[in-house]
Design a protein that fits this description.
- The chain is built from 14 helices and ten strands.
- It has 394 residues and is an alpha/beta fold.
- A hairpin with a 3-residue loop joins strand 6 and strand 7.
Length: 394
């Protein structure tokens, strides 16, 4: 049985831990109200946080935070090592992103030793791609190794499920009239035979069975990924390149990958290696969606079997009315048109709401999509059925 003394110790311990956490959040100084000093590992963690999130005064008393990374490569490299020691990977990635944004460390990423110290993630890849043209040759191979590590992680996470989901969709899209029992599409069969409902037996007598066919190895569908490579779309470009490579590996899908800003570049011949695709992109610059869609439209030979996926925030620098006319024409011809405002794990993106509403009026609602949902979206588009929980932009 626990005594009063033990309970008091437990309460005191809980209060102490609470004060410790508040001290870590508030950063010290007279205003934090905790009166708590830090030592050992806590002090080291606080120092790493202070170097990034401090006030930059440089004259704060010992134990109080002040921004201290500056532009020194050795100091930044040590700091990168420290945060990987003290914080989980997900937190490290956020802190790296904040360091690049708050302290202007992009130029340091062009040094090989700095790249070797960072925690690779999608956002870091986007930053490296934006620096690609300015990157010295001595750094390029290190940067490619960092990008390849992230790409391989994404492929491992996404490829198997994507292939399985889309293979099933392709199989189901080829309907047969005399299916084997295992291939019967019961939902469609019941709907087709509702007129044969027998009330006395409370059952439907199916005169016609509808089943799933089995897709052959020949090309069944064509997919065109049309990707906006403006700076705000960096994460989407990374994910789309990985998905493009996965789709290109499937014999039943002919995949084309097109990237654009004010110019249009067809990267289909590089789809066997998404790292090559990424280093061929040029993040930043203007946007001409109309020109990109005109190119994609010129490559469509089987409209009823084609899915066009436009990945863009819809800030159009080209001819808006022409863009909308092209989308309408493609849909009339039988093309399935999908508009993704973002293909990333982030929240709702900034986007042109007027253009999104205009596309929705054409039957092409625009919405953000996580990488994990993308296989389901593509499967629905291949089968010409409603998209799964698209969360249209409002």
């Amino acid at each position: 049985m626990t005594g009063t003394g033990d309970t008091a110790v437990a309460v005191a311990g809980a209060d102490g831990e609470r004060l410790r956490r508040w001290r870590m959040v508030l950063g010290g100084g007279e205003a934090d109200g905790t009166g708590r000093a830090l030592a050992g590992r806590d002090a080291a963690m606080d120092g790493a946080l202070g170097a990034l999130y401090g006030d930059g005064s440089g004259g704060a008393p010992r134990g109080e935070r002040s921004a201290g990374l500056g532009g020194s490569a050795p100091k930044v490299a040590r700091w990168l090592g420290d945060i990987r020691t003290y914080f989980p990977s997900s937190v490290v990635q956020v802190m790296q992103r904040d360091a690049i944004a708050r302290l202007g460390l992009s130029t340091l990423l062009m040094e090989p030793e700095m790249l070797e110290a960072v925690e690779p993630d999608v956002h870091l890849v986007g930053t490296l791609l934006s620096l690609n043209k300015a990157m010295p040759e001595t750094t390029r191979e290190t940067a490619r190794a960092v990008v390849r590590k992230v790409v391989e992680q994404l492929e491992k996470r996404l490829a198997t499920r994507t292939r399985a989901t889309l293979t099933g969709a392709l199989d189901r899209s080829a309907r047969v009239s005399r299916p084997r029992h295992a291939d019967i599409d019961w939902n469609r069969t019941i709907r087709a035979n509702l007129k044969n409902y027998l009330p006395e037996y409370r059952t439907v007598v199916p005169e016609r069975l509808i089943g799933y066919g089995r897709a052959a190895q020949s090309v069944k569908k064509e997919v065109i990924l049309c990707i906006d490579q403006s700076g705000s779309m960096a994460a989407s470009v990374v994910y789309a390149s990985v998905f493009g490579a996965v789709l290109a590996s499937m014999r039943s899908i002919a995949t084309r990958l097109v990237v654009f800003d004010t110019a249009v570049v067809d990267l289909t011949d590089q789809l066997d290696d998404p790292v090559d695709v990424l280093f061929a992109t040029q993040l930043g610059g203007g946007t001409d969606i109309n020109r990109a869609l005109a190119y994609c439209q010129s490559k469509i030979t089987r409209p009823a079997d084609t899915v066009v996926v436009l990945i863009s925030d819809l800030y159009e620098g080209g001819i808006r009315d022409e863009m909308l006319k092209r989308v309408a024409a493609m849909k009339r011809s039988g093309v399935e048109f999908v508009t993704l405002l973002a293909l990333s794990d982030e929240g709702a993106p900034a986007y042109d709401r007027e253009h999104a509403a205009a596309l929705a009026a054409l039957g092409a609602p625009a919405f953000a999509c996580t990488p994990d949902l993308f296989p389901e979206v593509m499967a629905a588009a291949l089968e010409k059925r409603p998209l799964p929980d698209p969360r249209p932009a409002s």
